[in-house]
Design a protein that fits this description.
This protein is about 50% helix and about 20% strand. The chain is α+β, with helices and mostly antiparallel strands. It folds into two domains: about 30 residues; about 70 residues, Histidine-containing Protein, Chain: A (2-Layer Sandwich), CATH 3.30.1340.30. The relative contact order is 0.14.
Length: about 110
């Protein structure tokens, strides 16, 4: 009888292939689980607040932060468009943030 199709490696190599495939499957499932882990709204709020407060271009501004379902809304007043864009960029760079709504208005002291 003639066999067609996939040629299986030797018996010893077959065990190695099975072990390798199992390890790859475990690695893939671990990576998927890690990527699905999201920060809570409270954790995102804390990170945004800290980054804005520590940034030399933005700190000192009167900003309010709201986070709902990983959507960050920035409100308040800053002096320049550069500061406004910087605040948005800082919030957007946080892992897990889906969207940033920038409602910051411009105006001097």
């Amino acid at each position: 009888m003639r066999s067609t199709g996939v040629q299986w490696p030797e018996k010893m190599n077959l065990k190695k292939w099975i072990a390798l495939l199992m390890a790859l499957g475990l690695l893939a499932s671990t990576c998927l689980a890690f990527s699905e882990k999201q920060l809570s709204d409270d954790a995102i709020y804390d990170l945004v607040k800290r980054r804005l407060a520590n940034d030399p271009d933005v700190k000192g501004g009167a900003l309010q932060i709201e986070v709902k379902q990983r959507v960050v809304t920035l409100r308040g007043k800053l002096e320049t468009e550069k500061q406004k864009q910087r605040a948005e960029k800082l919030a957007r760079k946080i892992s897990g943030v889906r969207q940033v709504i920038n409602e910051i208005v411009l105006g001097g002291h």
